Amino acid sequence: MSNGQHILLEDLSVFPALKKIWEFLPEARLVGGAVRDLLLNTDVADFDFGTPEPPEQVSSILRNGGIKVIPTGLSHGTVTAVIEGNNFEITTLRRDEQTDGRHAQVAWTRNWREDAARRDFTINAMSCGLNGQVHDYFGGQHDLRMSRIRFVGDARERIREDALRILRFFRFQGRFGGTEPDQETLDAISDCAVLVRKLSAERVWAELRRILVGPHVVQMLELMARSGVLGECFPELTGRDDTAIALLASLIACGGPCDESLRLAALLKGAGATLDMIERCVHRLRLSRSGATEVISMSGYPIPTPQNAKDDDDIARLLANTPRSSLTGRTWLARAEAEQHGLTSIAREDWVALLCRLKMREQPHFPLAGRDIVALGVLAGPRVGEVLSVVRQWWLDGGCHEGKKACLTFAKYELATGR
Q1: Is residue 16 reached through a cis peptide bond, with omega within 30 degrees of 0 on the bond before it?
Q2: How many Å apart are CA 118 and CA 104, to the nearest integer?
Q3: What is the DSSP string of 220-272?
Q4: Cβ neighbourhood burial of 131 (10 Å; 0-12, 13-18, 19+)
Q5: Beta strands at 127-128 and 104-108: parallel, antiparallel or unpaired
Q6: What CATH fold (topology level) applies to the domain 1-146?
Q7: Distance in angstroms (rounded) separating the CA atoms of residues 12 and 8
Q8: pLDDT digits (tens, 9 = 90+) for 51-89
Q9: 10 Å Cβ neighbour count for 159?
Q10: Per the similarity annotation, which family is this (predicted)?
Q11: CATH topology of domain 154-233
């Protein structure tokens, strides 16, 4: 075990809250990502603790000390302490008794090394007590300095315990890995890639979305494709991995926004996925309703380009029928596709101007509703919809400028002429 490095915890703004936990749980240590990020001198998202005491005892000790405790996951040994508006997860040290690739049966332990041994990567298996001393059982500090992502112990064993670690590997490799992963690790991932199928769609998408918006996404997707993982996550890309990744790379190269829906749409569009395939993909991965709608809509038509959206009236007509975010996404994809195939006849400035007009133009709203047509003496029924459709098309043809009074005048004219 390496214990060479110390962390100056006193410099942290949350140190008074951390110290309060140590006041009641002196054997507790910061664990996982908090230690890793503190060693890297980067912002810490969550300060999580490990402790030898069982969860019921932890809850009792903290409550007796006047600290609010939430029983976050007692069956997994986790409670949440709330101190000065900060939430701290505190988990009893565990060892795995039995795993099936998705769930683990655990037993409490007082052995810190046993608890560290069940973690995924060496850089996430370190712990740190109140004195700032880093406890490192598997060389995580060295791997962090070398920008290397390495499984704790045997990679295949860690993956069989929880297949989600395959996807976590690529997420952490993109964020912290500075070198090509060793072939032994990639071989282990490739051999176990099929285990991804056993994972819930929600867990898979939770990792994929972080990979898509994370650093070095193109390189990570290429590694995933090489090891067979990308095809397990996205069967829609099978045989078209290269073109799918190429469109995403083009999107990033031309400055496309770091948006998970847009990047997923780029992958699917790059693979030539049909609208039906895209719909099946987003529903299979169980995206949120808004997320699924975004991806599907970004893959649809019409597609704004500098040739078919030349002026303000063209933009107004587009915005009247389609959400702004969908049109913007389609424009970015069209631009990325053009650059991917070397179609440089459209200047970069023209694409930028189009995106600016889409962003700045106020969304037009057709000023009439069915009740307005009924008020003109038309009986409720199909005829109301027919008249509305004709008036709306007239409004669109005119660039969506006319207000309610002009639209009503045109509606009266249509009714008077009997058309």
Answers
A1: no
A2: 10
A3: HHHHHHHTTHHHHH-GGGTT-HHHHHHHHHHHHHTT----HHHHHHHHHHHTT
A4: exposed
A5: unpaired
A6: Beta Polymerase; domain 2 (3.30.460)
A7: 8
A8: 999 999 999 999 999 999 999 888 889 999 999 999 999
A9: 24
A10: Belongs to the tRNA nucleotidyltransferase/poly(A) polymerase family.
A11: cca-adding enzyme, domain 2 (1.10.3090)
